[in-house]
Specification:
single chain, alpha/beta, Rossmann fold, 5 strands, signal, Cutinase
Length: about 230
């Protein structure tokens, strides 16, 4: 989500505040904490469709929703999504990981409305496709900022059977921080919000603390790996 673009659009719009009650994760003070495996950059682009492009089923399928105005369908190379993918691949092995981005408009109006409705449905449909197409894969629902809204919304659309197919949930900079993710058990959910992140506090102001979640990739990947291995 780009600060100038969001603030310019938000200044002309009104949005209902989002409740935020969850405890916050501490953010690393430097990027030196990022795992060396990330530098391998297996995922160095902004678009990945390894569920829909004919890639063979893999042990883990990450479905990722980028933030507002993010490039491609997973965000810019080196941003939250690709950095997380590389960290996870470094733990479980690149050949065991498939990444599927959610194709949606990612506009500021979608954010202000609580998460793009069409994108939320698309994400739920991708979970269903992963479960039917690759019945043995471990499904991870994940996203950043407005992408986190999509995770919440999509999870609420899942049947009990599909909910049970989700192995892990990861959200960076969650506008719905503190709220359940559908009926997915909290033990499978990690929401990372920095102190000082106004978006996590239910606001619409982009601070520096909302723009550096790639630093949390190692911790995020370790959490997810612990649930899918």
């Amino acid at each position: 989500m780009k600060a100038g673009l969001l603030l310019a659009a938000a200044s002309a719009a009104m949005a209902a505040p989002f409740e935020s009650v969850a405890a916050r994760s501490d953010k690393p003070s430097t990027v030196a904490s990022i795992s060396p495996s990330i530098s391998k950059r297996q995922y160095n682009g902004d678009t990945f469709n390894q569920l829909t492009d004919g890639t063979a089923c893999r042990a883990v399928t990450v479905i990722w929703a980028r933030g507002t105005y993010g490039a491609g369908n997973v965000g810019e190379a080196g941003s939250e999504g690709p950095t997380f993918f590389n960290a996870l691949a470094g733990i479980i092995g690149a050949s065991n990981l498939a990444v599927q981005g959610v194709n949606y408009s990612a506009s500021v109006l979608g954010f202000l409305s609580g998460g793009d409705a069409a994108g939320s449905t698309t994400m739920a449909n991708l979970v269903s496709q992963a479960a039917s197409q690759c019945p043995n894969t471990k499904i991870v629902m994940s996203g950043y900022s407005q992408g986190g809204q999509l995770v919440h919304n999509a999870a609420s659309k899942l049947s009990t059977t599909l909910t049970n197919k989700v192995s892990a949930v990861l959200i960076f900079g969650d506008p719905f921080d503190g709220q359940p993710v559908g009926n997915i058990p909290s033990s499978k959910v990690k929401i990372i919000c920095h102190d000082g992140d106004n978006i996590c506090d239910g606001g619409i102001i982009i601070t520096a603390d909302h723009s550096n979640y790639e630093q949390d990739a190692p911790a995020a990947a370790a959490f997810v790996a612990g649930l899918v291995q």
